[in-house]
Amino acid sequence: MAEPEPATDAAPGEGEEKPKPAPKPRGRPKDEHAPPKPKDAKAQITGEARRKAREADPEKAKDLKAMAEIAAAAWESTPQAEKDRLTEEYEKELAIWKPKWEAYKETPEYKDFVDRKADYMDIKRKKILIRKHVRGKIEVGKTLRVGSKFTHMFAEDSPDNYDLKAGHLGTVTEVDVGEEKSAKVDWQELGVKLFLKKYFGKVEDPEVPKRPKSGYMIHAAEVRDITKDEVIAAGGDPLKDVGTKIAEKWNALSEAQKAQYSAKAEEQKESFSKAFEEYRKTDKYKNFENSKVNLDSTQKLKKLQRTKLGDIMKSAPSAKNLWRKEVSDEILKEEKKSGQPFDRAAFHKKLNERWTALTDEEKAPYNEKAAAMKAAAEKKKKDFKTSKTYIGFLEERQKVKIRQNRLVNLRDMPKKPKSVFALFAQEHKSEVPSGKGEGKGTSALKEKFEQAPEEEKKRLQEKQDEMMEKYKQELEEYKAGDTYKKFETTEQKVKKEFMNEAMKVMTLKFLNAAPEQPPKTAAQVYIAEKRKANSSPDDEPKSKEARKEEGKKYLDEYKKLDMDMKKEFESKMKELQAEWKAKTKEFCDQELWKEYLSEARRLHVPVKSLLSNKNQAIKRLKNGMRVIAIPEKPEGMPTKPANAFRLFIREKRQEATEGFDLEAAKKTWDEMDAEAKKKYEDEAAENYSRFLEAMKEFRQSDEGKEYNRSVARAQKNKKITVAKFTYLKDMPKKPPNAFRIFNDKKGKEIKKENPDVKGFEIFKVVKEKWKSLTEEEKQPFLDEAQRLQTKYEEDLAAFKQSENYQKYEKAVKPKSKAKGKAKAKASSGPKVPEGMPQKPPSARQVFQKENAGKGMDLAALHKAYSELPEEDRKEREAKAKEAEDEYKKALDEFYQTAAGKRYKRETANVAKRQKLNSAKSKYLKDAPKKNPDAITLWHHDNKELVAKENPDLKGLKIVHAVKKMWLALSDEEKAPYLEKEAEAKKEYQEKLKEFQSSAEYKKFKAVEKSATGKGRGSASAAAPAVPAGMPKKPPTAQVIFKNETKAGKDASQKWLDLGAEGQKEWTQKYKELMNAYEKELKEFKTSAEGKAYYKALNAHEKKKREEKTKERILGNQADLPPKPKKPASAYFIFVSEKSKEGVKDKKEVGKLWSELDAEAKKVLDAKAAEAKEAYEKELKEYQNHPLIKKFEKAIGGAKKSSSGKDKKKSKDAKGKTAAGKGKAKAKSGAGKGKAKAKAKKDDDSSDSDAMGSDSDKDSSSSSSSSSSDSDSS
Question: How many other β-carbons are positioned within 10 Å of the β-carbon of residue 343?
Fold first, then answer.
């Protein structure tokens, strides 16, 4: 109830009462203008019975059940004859009413009523939503709160009735009780009571804060019961007079009494504000608000459709619907006469069956009428879509959807903190008088803010900066979440929907008047001509599918045309394109086009470029990418001349008086002999020669050079634009400088204070303010600019390491001619020796060379070659084959020479290097870089000193000078740099170890292994070369057949066509060749060359098997410990120490070692022995690893099985020798063999692979040999 205005004693006029405003209509809207619908028999009889009952007993009208019983009894007691009479009258009246109703539905009054009714229903739905939210869902365990006091009544004098007061709490214990679906509630102080469903609306959800009452409403609640009793005692109407009486009592209160109620209201308001502030953070409140926004948006969209579109966008009825409208009343009567209850599904089924049973002749009138109505509706739609109303509808719809999206999906978005002035106003609001105008409210606060001390402003600025920093972090986190992404996706979707529909409207309104675009390809020209030739105006229009099939058929025919015919259609296409361009330019000069441009700018839709590819232009414009146009060819640029056939066609076209038949002309050309064609061929060749000369002159002319440069520039810009658009989307934007930050901040304030001032004037004011600032005042903006710049540089540096930026650099990197040549040279391998044979051209290449300059392009030359007589072609191919055989023979001989062998070896080396370089750039780009040594670190810190002492030295000489200065330093001076080197080396080793366990490094090692054999030992070496004298295995029967018959591509099919009988001849030839080959191979195996080859091959395969075993067992084991490295001897420890000191020359180190005294060597020997002892311990642990043992066992088994036969032979040989002499020789031989084996092992150990299998003995012997070598040196 609203708080009434205080009563006044002043009368409205002299003896006149103040006119009362018309009461606002309440309840469901009624349509006063609609023709009244006649009542059926039952409605007339029961209505009359109810009227009489109300007149007889007004109190009974309130009892709905009793009224329903009276109506039912009246209907039952009415004779059937009377019912039939009333029904007959009703049907007559209904027949008169229906046309009136249909006509009324087209009037504005009906549409206004529909809109009012929809608005009423919308308000009702909003109220229901709010009521549901306030009440909450009634379920077991839910706490309820009574909204206002009432008496829960079962019956008027029932003892079960109970009173509930406002704020009374209770818990639901049971739901869906009885037929009425009531609930049982455990009320405080009352216990468990049945709570009827009709009272569900009087309870509230205690989680939802209850809105506070005003002072007037608090007073009204206190005096309502007393006032009601007074009104009833005085004989007044409790529904009308109680409110008036309460208002009179309120007006009679003193200001002090009213102030007490206002204070209570303020307390309630404060309490509510705190509770509501907490409640609005809950998901329940957010969901309710979102539901409210969604409902409101849906209702607004429906209202837009009602008010803006109406029935215009509705589809026309189908033929079936038109028929059904005519016959449905008749069928409905039949259903009623049957006496059965009405079944809607059965009724529609009967309608469908009757429609299906109709013949085509019976359906025809309805089909024609439906088609006419559909065409009229479509035309009406198109006309309406070009109106301003429809465009307005699209704009309003977009606004509603964008608002809905922002309110729903940006609800939890962090709020921007207040400005410095707003914070100041918040603190000093109570110090100025409230209101609007000068000296009040905001105006007074601005004046006060101008006079505020700088310390306070600085404090508020710091507070605002802190809040802003927090806001930015929260905003960044929020934008990374799913809700914000959903908001962006929905916004894009809404904008796209508007864009697509607006562009369709623009096309209907403006672009349909543009000249029709001609065919874009020669094939389309051919299809259009074919359709025109094979159709007449009287033909019925074809369906979409039929036209599609027809197009496919004509396209297949076009593909079969020769190149000359296609060129003719291409020239016609160009003529049509030129004609269309001229018409389009005229269209673009008209007022309609200017209006289109203006409307497109207003709606923010892309302008269609009529003179370029529509789809491409629009797509790029939508994406925001700049379109780079390739410059048009200049008029002075020579055009490629026509070939002989096209010259002939042009001549015949000019001779033709009526329509020219291109296919007939082509047939004539094909039937002409070579003599008749020579005239046109000579002319074409002459024209082509002149074209080449003219093109050469054009390229050298200023115009030609400028055109080539402009084309190159356009292509370069296009490449850069595409690369930027594709790869630099996420590149950080350059931050604003200090002045721009100041401008952004102050410009908005000045604009707000002076809304009529233009942008450039505001900029001038801001610029002057910036100049007038002191350095201290500018400093916060300079600091912020520096912070943003630092962040930008960090983000940019991180972005430049990304894959996208590398792709961008690769895309825009200019290809230098010199580098290109060097690359080409490197990729082509070593220089070809002078004596190396040149590969001869193929038969086709020879033919093309012979016919060059005759005006034929490559495709025409290919076709001409394929059309040569078979004998001529075979002769040419035989000559080419003979030349190729001679070339292969000469090449084999060349490869036997020293120059050939060298070239072959160099080619292989180049290929190997290329493979390794490619693998390095691909897999080792993230490998750790080696750290500088101590000398380099010292040089880096002392560059000025080195340059000062050696001003004339450059290049390598400066390096020698640095080395000399380093050696002259004392140990104390060297120590820090040696420590840095050691730390850096340790860090590098750790990084290297980590990198070597990565997948990229393993991939590189695999490539290195396949390219060089590195890491595989002798087994990884290439298999022994096949000797020249080794017989070659003959080809299969099918290959022999293909080679001898020159079957070509169809060889497989021809071989199958021979069948078993036909293939016998070739199978026999293969058997003969195979027998001869096996005989020659047997003889070769017994020869010295054969024995040597097979011995080497067996050794190679044996090593290969061992390598596979190693790869299988130890290949990809992450938990396998690294093999310990052999320790250095005393001499190499000494070498390492001297290397750190900068002494790296071998002779100088050897001299220092020889001059070293015995005591110093003894210290180094002790270090070597200690290292060796640790190494042997680690090696033992390594060899005891299960995987190493497994590998050693596998290798040992393979060796034992492969060498068993050799041992047996050796044993037999020993048995046959003489006792003394034989034994001595065997012993001597064994000793030699062991020595050799040991030497071989020592050699092998120096080049063992990462996982090697050298024994401890080998290691120690290697170490001792190293030590003895060092001693001797």
Answer: 11
